[in-house]
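Researcher: Next entry in the queue.
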Amino acid sequence: MTGDDVTYLVRSTPDRVMSVSYNMCNRLPAYAVSTGPVLLAYEPDEVLEQYFACVQLKQHRPNTVSTTVKLRETILETRQLGSSLVDEELEAGVQSLSVPIRDVNNRVTAALNVCCPSVRFTWMKCAASWYLNCWMPHS
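Model: Structure for this entry, 139 residues:
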C-alpha cells in the first residue's frame, strides 16, 4: 500500500476483446478494490487505526464501501475468509477477487488480484469458490 491506496506493480492481461486492465504503478483507493481489504486485514491494529484516521471514503459507485463501520466489517470478513471479493465498487461492470501473498515468515506482503467484466461474473464466483474450497488452508 502507498498511503491510503493500493499500488499495482505487475499485471497480466488476457488476449480477449473485452478485458479489465489497470496500468502498472496505478494507485487505487484501498477501500474500493479487493486488494485493499486483503492487505488491511493482516495489518496490526495500530496501523489499521492510523488508516481509519486518515482515509477519506468516497462513494465511487452504489456498491462502494462508504462508511468506516462497513469497511471494518469488510476487513474482518476478509481476515476470516482469507480473500476479498468486490462487486462493482470502483468501476461499473467490474468484479475482482484478491488473496494474500505471504513471505517466508508467513507475513502478508502483497495480494494477488483477478478482475473480470460483470458478464463473466458467474465464472468469477465459480473460480472463487473453487479456490477457497481447494487451496485455502482451513482453520
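Model: The mean pLDDT is 81.
Researcher: Noted, moving on.
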